[in-house]
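Pasting as-is:
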Amino acid sequence: MTIKWVQQDPLVMNGEPFCYGSRLTVRQLLELRSNGYDLTRILKDHPELRVLGIAAAYVYAAGAKERYAGFFERNGSLRGPGFSEAEAARLPAQYRVPGIVIKAGKAAKSVA
């Protein structure tokens, strides 16, 4: 079974995109990140979330910049701390996006 990590349903959370298995919306995760929450703190405060789900929410936001414009810096990266390179190393390649998932200014290493 393939999990769709970010889901949207008009009957759930007023149609706001949310993370699979939780009641946290993409917007709420972006608010936490922009307020300085790193991956460790988000997972500590919300153990129902998964690392992959958080990364998917960040990538989803990058694909909907007009909806989440207030969470992006002028250079196009998301505000706040992203994943460290070590945290991102275990993610599938499509989620290792510098400035979006990985802390701004850090380059992702490609894995063959």
